[in-house]
Amino acid sequence: MLRVIVAVVCLAAAPLARAQSLSAALPDDRRIVRLEQWLHAVYEHDPGTADRHASFIALWKGSDLEKLLLDTEVLARVMRNPKLRQFTIKRDGPAFEIRYTRGQVDRLRILGTILGCGVPASNLLCGEAVLLAAREPDLKRLLTAVQAEPPDDMDNGVLRRGALLHTDIAVLVPESERGPDDRPVNATSILIEFNDGQQRALTAGPLHWAIARMLLDAVKPAGLERPAPERDEMVRHWYQATASWLLANEHFEETHFDRGREIFPDDALLQFFSGTVHEAQAGPRVQTMIRGATLPSGVTLGVKSARAEFRQAEGFFRRALELDPRMTEARLRLGHALLMQEHYADAATELRKTLDPAGDPLLQFYTVMFLGAAEEALGKPAEAAEWYSSASKLYPTSQSPRVALSALARRRGDRDGAWRSMQQVFALPNDERDRDDPWWTYTQQQGRAADLMLENVRLPFLRK
Amino acid sequence: MTRRLLVFALAALPIAATGQQASFSAKVEAIRVDVLVTENNQPVLGLGPSDFEVFDNGVPQKVELVSFEQIPLNIVLALDMSGSVDGERLDNLRGAGVSLVGALKEEDHVGLVTFSHLVTLGSGLTDDFTAVRRALERINGEGGTALIDGAYAAMSLGESDPGRPLLIVFSDGVDTSSWLPADSVLDIAKRSDVVVYAVATESRTKPEFLRDLTSLTGGRLYEVEKTANLGAIFFKVLQEFRQRYLVSYTATGVEQRGWHRLEVRIKSRRANVQARPGYLSGS
């Protein structure tokens, strides 16, 4: 399955409500009830599982999640500053204000105060909130959960755990077990789903990742006055792990990668992952699908021409190598991007630097296959054949090196040699389970450590 | 076409005073062109060498031989077995393959290549039609689409045996998994004898590779909305191929190497002639 994200969401504006102090709750207010249900799910969710809390939130409709996105952003601000009266949201479009009723604002302040009890400036209000919580079981449950967080990171708990909850929904809850997305598809964020080259679905952009990103934007490391996600290692590791997962699953959601780089511009891994997004989008697979995509009127795709995408990929790989010259995989993919731009000699130079007989066989396979293609284009068929042959030895049941050898021989006029190599292809096992060809998964392999990376991000938040 | 017949003509030279014997070889290329001649969409039959005019890079050539329905066919079916081919579509594809095999002559041979992201040999070229029918019964759709690799593998199978190779490709999707770039296989097609016919299901993504491949080999591309009539199309392809002429000439007055532009005409008739647009010599 292949998904392509093409734009960003633009949300509607609403006027502002005013609020002054902590007062009566609004248990029958649907919007607030939903927000409180979400808060309980956040604290009770067991990270790394599709438990009942994740399943519950996953069933919410797209329009409800969109409201949740706004409400949680407001809540995060109120948590930092319970006296806040105006809620102006700035996303990709123009800024807009959200209007709440007085009762809604009061409840948001209570919730925000409880969540932010670790913030010294809110101590007085915190005491007030604790008194209110003593009278209301749901608030008490929330307060207990907040206070169970590490003391120096208590106010970030809802943000981190909320991000993990939505990550788990995006990663672990199957599409079939999620609520319907009732948002119009004419929004500026669109998700296109392809399967075997055919367009299968066109929906509004995914919200779980957007909610998670927004929550982590508000993370404020201990000792700092303002949110500073760029100073937080959990946020960095979350971006790395989720980027890896998105790539492993061919979800080319550029917004996610852009935001990661915006926060961590000097992170070699995020630069590398961004390069692989463009590398995949440059490939014939995405390019062909994009040409045949059916889009709503007025919508254009963010995917550029193959050459332009490879050029962008090259830029990201070069930047990754500036930041970490030992990143072999970035150099390998730089070689591939150069190869595909027909800079064959430069490609061969970079690829030779990644040759390492004792290295990871997977990366060596790609290296020698691309070196073969570069040498073939440089008019060195004997060298090309040697590289392809070495690839076939690294993966004895792989198809692509043998196909490459056959075509190389055939183009040289060696029909017998071409047929011999093709016979080797035909002699491979018919069952896919008995074959192993890394070429088939080239556009996903950069995300092969995603599960482990996600586990590491979740580790400090697991239930004891 | 362009199966080159290399004729080594050895000419004896007078024995030199030293007693050493010298010899040389001369290479003569016999070019074969598969040609379909139609008038009002009906095949024109009964033509002989004198009816054809062949121009190789603009240079008129002497047509030496025209065969019609004399050479057994080597038919290779290359079928897309990716994940999108299932249910009724798969049944139709199987049925079409079995029908085609049923329409072959005893002296013909047939082979089967299937491709998802895996390229597999269902059957080598054989006159055991029952075995091929059994192979067709076993096919199942799953995975990505390595159309370019699959088409190349099937061309290789078609070339692997002397005879008159016809490749019929069916695909319902775009290439998602091939190693070979399209240009590489199109380049090989220019050097090959195989005539490629293709059937592609209609979609917003144009089957550019199949269009180019069929055009370069003198075949034809069918774009179909549904697969219900696939059997009839396969049969039509077979009938059309049997009604083609195999025109042979020895290339003279032209450079040996490189791309040769071909033009085939029928003298004194306004017939429609379908043949490959050229060939790449030296392969």
Measured distance between first and last alpha carbons of chain A = 36 Å
- Helical proportion of chain B? 10-25%
Q: What is the oligomer described by this structure?
A: heterodimer
Largest sheet data of chain A? 4 strands, mixed
CATH topology of the domain at 70-242 in chain B: Rossmann fold
Distance between the termini of chain B: 12 Å
Which segments of chain A are poorly predicted (pLDDT under 50) over 5 or more consecutive residues?
A: 1-27
Second rung of CATH, namely the architecture of the domain at 70-242 in chain B:
3-Layer(aba) Sandwich
CATH class of the domain at 70-242 in chain B: Alpha Beta
The main sheet of chain A orders its strands as: 5-4-1-6
Sheet with the most strands, sense and barrel status of chain B: 6 strands, antiparallel
The average pLDDT value of chain B, as a whole number, equals 85
Helical proportion of chain A, percent range: 55-70%
SSE series of chain B: EEEEEEEHEEHHEHEHEHEEEE
What do these coordinates show?
The complex is a heterodimer of chains A (464) and B (283). Chain A is built from 20 helices and six strands. With 464 residues, chain A is mainly alpha-helical. The N terminus of chain A is likely disordered. With 283 residues, chain B is α+β, with helices and mostly antiparallel strands. Chain B has a domain of 173 residues: 3-Layer(aba) Sandwich (Rossmann fold). Helix content of chain B is 25%, strand content 34%. The N terminus of chain B is likely disordered.
